[in-house]
Amino acid sequence: MKYSTIPFLLLVLFSACSSQSGSDAAASSKQAAPAPAFPTLPIETIRTLVAECDYIDIIMYQPQFSMSQNERSAVMATLSHISEVPAVHNAANPATGHIFYQAKGQTLLEADLYLRNEGSYLVFYQDGKPAFANAMTQQGVAFFANILSQLQGAPQQ
Questions:
Q1: pTM for this entry
Q2: Which terminus of the chain faces fewer neighbouring Cβ atoms within 10 Å, N or C?
Q3: CA–CA distance, 123 with 133 (Å, rounded to integer)
């Protein structure tokens, strides 16, 4: 619950710090509306994933690639890539990939994966709509960057 207020507080702080005087500054701040802020994934959901998730399917879009994880250590390592830090989602950028978190053949959660220079993060879905956004840990960024670098160096079939 305490994490759900963080994006709102950051937005209020940002607004207070960036307020400027003059009509030109007010007009320009109205034109640059911030990206929609999503709360972080609820701790209960993370606990459920840790307790129940036994399979992760990762689909990368460019280059096209998919991989699955079903060993407990690999699943836990991938779950540890979810940071507690909230992420600002830029809807103008396309997702790099998509992740399915599953238990006993049922999808528990889905997320779009965004690997960007300005910040890598996950946007989680609830009822088919984006609902939560968490930054990725540095280990998660390194993991996916390593996969992409290997794919880009691999010969095309």
A1: 0.74
A2: C
A3: 4
